[in-house]
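Figure S4 source data
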Amino acid sequence: MDRYIVGQGEAKRAVAIALRNRWRRMQLDGVMREEVMPKNILMIGPTGVGKTEISRRLARLADAPFVKVEATKFTEVGYVGRDVEQIVRDLVEIPLTMMREKRREAVQAKAELAAEERVLDALVGDTASQSTRDAFRKKLRDGELADKEIELDLTDAGGGLPTFEVPGVPGAQMGMINLNDMLGKALGAERTKHRRLTVAESYDVLIVEESDKLLDEES
């Protein structure tokens, strides 16, 4: 913490010890784990003293989700509703996104090769000879075809299924529970959209799409 934040020594020490205790607890088994109790942290102070920055930096160091919420309007007893539940949804959705990005990085190399093959298919067709593909592959890697336009069938992120709301979880269609994705894959209703892009533009889109395919295969 000292490496990233100037001042607030007591606060940094307190949050560091709290995080260390949680880590220690994770390393223990059985009865010993119960002897190391994790504690939540409450930081109090005027605006601008570094509460948010300490929290954000701690989350980054621990590779944990961070959500900043203005909770003043939620302090009334018995207050419920979409805004309050959105806090919980964000806390669940952010780590899911973080984990998916990590897994995408793990399959990045394979996804890049698969994306390259799809670009080659769009350029020369999937029936072209190996020598033709190799010649175009060299041009592709040398950047000679970056501005050339190609046509691709890409997954339609909008989906074609109606939006549902989960009973007891208002607004679930907004993020945490993506029923369009779940039902679309289960029913084989994943739709594609024909798009025209330059080779350079297509790479990022194709790499994400191929990464997701590889992740689905591993699941």
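Figure S5 source data
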Amino acid sequence: MTDLVPVRRALYVSAALGTLVLGALFAGPALAQRKEGPPRAGVDFSYSPIVKKAAPGVVNVYVRGRVQNPPLSNDPFIQRFLGEFLGMPEERVQSSLGSGVIVSPQGIVVTNTHVVKVGGTAEIKVALADRREFDAKVILQDEKSDIAVLRIEGNGPFPYLEFDDSDVLEVGDQVLAIGNPFGIGQTVTSGIISALARTEVTKSGVQMFIQTDAAINPGNSGGALVDMTGKVVGINTAIFTRSGGSHGVGFAIPSNLVKLYVESAVSGRKIERPWLGAKLDGVTRELAEALGLERVSGALVSSVSSRGPAAQAGLEPGDVIVKVDGYEVVDDRAIGYRLMTKGIGNTSRFDVVRKGRRVAVDIALRSAPVPSRDDVRNLSGQHPLDGARVANLVPAITDELGINEQEGVVILEMERTAVAARLGFRPGDVVQQVGRTRIDNVVTLEAALRERPRVWQIVLKRGNQTLQVQLPAG
């Protein structure tokens, strides 16, 4: 079975490998004698100049967090009868390691959110290529993009890497991956750009990934993918693997998206995703043939909001978006990336196929309307959703959460001790029916929850799943 895994590694692996390396280093005196390699004149090409430029700006990231054990281990009954077998303190230490890239002389570091998010109170250290170590602080982390930004707590200037334009990459371009695989220390691997605009790597609605065959392994998360100028074109984040190691299928977040998060972290301004005001779907083979499309790609406009930018610009249901600003659209998920990297306040040109004809539509990018107080409710009472904060499916909320549902009410958050949380409801769940009542908004939800049935019957959407929940009342 092939799995997609984030490329970080637990610290104990580093220790084990460290033992292996030390054993090799002290195996015998012969190993201490260095042999000279072939003359440099005999080498047609070397990556050495690029590595010398880029490697100092790539760091190892070590994270150590204290995490509370689950309530079960603190239960007096469990402690009394199984305590000696559990052997678990109230807190446990969770550690991980990965890589990061310094992108400014002031010590701003980019890495992956899954590297630094270990739970509890985390202590983060970064180790530079010159062996200096510093504490670091998270100043931004975003789970959807898997991008985190740190600030080194030390005096600069620090060695750093510049970003290059990831949109100019072509399949076949040579790249280097620099990181800390398996915790053994900084390592450089080479390869090419294997593919561009990969959108099926994660469930995020705005992600497009660069695919490379440069070897990426656990511990490489957050490391640099650099081009032949020594500039960053991507942040390594995941691999497809059957064994846990590299099989030549690695993925990196494009630098053009990473730059947005760095700018947001430094300026303190929140990243706003442009609002299109249209529901998009993928293009099937049958639809592509019917429309005479050259390939099975693009994004089908299934509906538009009457007050949204798409409708105001003339986009219509049934249109198939094939290009945005000259870039081919692979599927509906690629649209979010293109709009985000273009930015609010700009205009994007959409090339669409409409009834067999090519049409150009210019859409002014703006933020979604801010939800009103009437769109949000804090629920309380004798019902399963007690303690949940819910909201209508207005554009600002659905865009932020990546929800495509048109009907229902979404759960925004809840306390861990709330009734709703204990019953298994989650943030992002869309409640669509309570009993026989279809839920259109927070008002109808509140009314339905005032009923007193013998059994609560709730229908909700969780991702692509429709769940039917039955809970006894009282």
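Residues 9-35, 71-86 have pLDDT under 50 and may be disordered. The chain is about 20% helix and 35% strand.
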